Amino acid sequence: MFKNLLVIILLMSSLCASSMEDMRIEYRINFDTLDPHLSPGMTTIEGHVYNSNGDPLSDAMVSTSDFIKQTTTDFSGFYSFEVSDKDSTIFAYRLNYTEVIIPNYDFKSQHIVSIDFFLMENIVPEVNLKPVVYAYGDIENVSIQYDFKTELTFSYPAYQESWEFTSTANGDIIYDGKSYPYLFWEGENWKSDYSSLGADSYLVKTDTIIQHLENVLTTMNLNNREKTDFITFWGPKISQKEYAILQFLNDDEYDEMIAEISVNPKPQNMLRFYLLFTPLDYPIPNYSTKSPEFEPISREGFTLIEWGGSEIPLQNTWLNI
Prior knowledge:
This protein is of the alpha+beta class. Strands 11-15-9-20-19-17-16 form a 7-stranded mixed sheet. Strands 14-13-12-10-18 form a 5-stranded antiparallel sheet. It contains 4 helices and 20 strands. The radius of gyration is 26 Å and the shape is elongated. Helix 2 packs antiparallel against helix 3.
């Protein structure tokens, strides 16, 4: 009898602890009251944004779902802004924290609403997915060495301080007696962020992404195999949602942010580009839709081409919004 009672108590304690975790407070509405001094048709929203320990978070964004009305928190985590009473969804997020959304709230005209948000830390490593290297030219004893800015997690064929191979004119890579269409490596990177990389990121509607990528890669002078490899890998990932932010890193930026490369003998032509992207449910008003201009690579002589990419989760980046 006593043992059975003890088991029941322990089981209830476990369920209670689990329920407490599941019922973690993401936001708290402190009050919603009439303020006749406010303009008709408008609602003032104010409050604080905290982390899960109750510490204030500065530079957190609070916004309507369409990004038209938004603000950021001050050093004390406080925010205040006006929205239309026709708005119904607001959210809060901050770099490296989970997003908290309040959907379908009934904002009333000439009301002031106090809402506190509680964000959970959520540092997600970006994965440098599928950087691949193509080499063209009848060159024996080619050596590639990297200074990785990431932790190398996988390579094929195995990278062991360098890749030593023979390049052929048709693009076959002969490594350790076997033929490969390209060299492949993968790693983890915690640092990539649009805001640190200049103003070349831009918004695309993903129902046009296939044609857009075909145009970009054709401008770069990639061949059909390279374009097919790139689009079949990245197209489905970019198309997860209706919109996406894209940015291409080229050459020096690739060296600085992803991996520095040393090739011997030195290629006559080399192109390295790296895609950053973030899928979005909504477009960002006034965000640039103009893609940068890309220079075509000459393919005369020994030529090396490398491409790779990373999906940057929304909560891991500022998108200049």
